[in-house]
Amino acid sequence: MQTIHNYINGTEVPPQSSNYIDLYEPASGKIYGQVPDSDASDVDIAYTAAANAFPTWSALSIDDRSRYLTRIADLIEEKLDELAAAESKDNGKPLWLAKMVDIRRASDNFRFFAQAITQFSSEAHAMTNAINYTLRQPLGVVATISPWNLPLYLFTWKIAPALAAGNTVIAKPSEVTPMTAYLLSDICQQAGLPPGVLNIIHGDGIKVGAELTKHPKIKAISFTGSTRVGGEIARVAAPMFKKLSLEMGGKNPNIIFADCNYDQMLKTTVNSSFSNQGQICLCGSRIFVESSIYNKFKADFIEKAKSLTVGHPNEASTKVGAIVSKPHYEKILACIEIAKSEGGTILLGGEALHPKGYEDGYYIAPTIIEGLSNRCRTNQEEIFGPVVTIMPFNSDQEVLDMANDINYGLSATIWTENLTRAHKMAKEIEAGIVWVNTWLQRDLRTPFGGVKHSGVGREGGFEALRFFTEPKNVCVRY
Ligand code: NAD
Predict the structure, then answer these.
(1) Does the annotation mark 283 as catalytic?
(2) Using CA atoms, how far apart are residues 404 and 431, in angstroms rounded to an integer?
(3) How much is the pTM?
(4) Cβ atoms of 44 and 217 closer than 8 Å
(5) 27 and 168 in one domain?
(6) Which residue's alpha carbon is at the smallest distance from atom 8 of ligand 1?
């Protein structure tokens, strides 16, 4: 049994209440650890530590701050195997995926922002008799709140720019997948990060997340998670005039035209549907296929998806691992029942699986559904699991209308070899991110985020550094 601690003022400490939450291994359904059930008293202690650390940290030279971040990136890279094993055990994702994607990206996040801050600059505006220059100053103590689907990846995606910009941070990982955030505490100590610069508080959304949100002195909240919780955070934080970055849910269209590079599309669509058990906010869960290739696509897609091995995350052959938690597993299965009641035909999967030796784990077969309208609940609500629907379309306008006829607007994928069509669709689609003939291809310099109910604000590159700084214009007359 592993016991996780909070990380406050440079040391690992138990929660003030001495209460813990059970931590489950999704692959086996068994309890394997204890997470602090922290509350307002832990948040207060972390706030004091962060506030005390702020004057020195924010006054460090950019090069010095950059060096700390680079050291952390190096240590994450050195511990790739250990961190990937922990992530896979905690989340249920295949071990190879945690190694290839999650942990590498966590290291890249620190390395990227260690470099980005050295290139970050502000504007000057000359007048005939005066010069304006803009200072970009750190905000103070900021909070980050992150989800369970890409645990260390998204945790560090927020922490790295916040620290690089000179803020001190209280970070809350998901209580469902806290292990790699805990291991990061140790890495920060090894990197010699000064006490209080980063504080990690474990616990549930109400006792920790909500306390961070309503804390009167925390200047900004950077949140990634569900639209429901993002809305709750906005309701509480907006009247306090906190800076808010909200990265929320998605129900992304994957639009396939008959003139696409078919093989490339098919291979990528299998990934964009089922990678990480479909638990990526950018997965294309509504698949629109031009009518003339609908039947061919349907047959080929089912064939490919059928060959994905669902199994224990440690097996090298596993393509689809375990769903992150029992409540989420039950939610996905309930969504499949809703799809059936709405008249959907299950073309593949649609059921829980029980691999030998791991019968109590949370496994769901890749599921493909057809016969539903874009307006039904299955196509309008985020499921966040290995479940996709396929729908035929006849014209560019028809598919555009369906793609946009939803509250969400995170990402979209378009498959076509017609350049004019690609640019036109990309312009008209209501989403923060559009991929043409690719998926999940990321350059960390680009703005990342959603529109409508998927997001407020942008992360990534200088957008993140702008979020974590306050611009102040200085006008000097001469
Ligand atoms: P969630 O909203 O339930 O939880 C996210 C975080 O918020 C957790 O740390 C949780 O403890 C905390 N939280 C819960 N209630 C809170 C409250 N009242 N106040 C403050 N914090 C609170 O989301 P989840 O189930 O962990 O993650 C899945 C969701 O995240 C999906 O909707 C997915 O689309 C979304 N997501 C979005 C992006 C993106 O970039 N847009 C990326 C990954 C995941």
Answers:
(1) no
(2) 8
(3) 0.98
(4) no
(5) yes
(6) 174
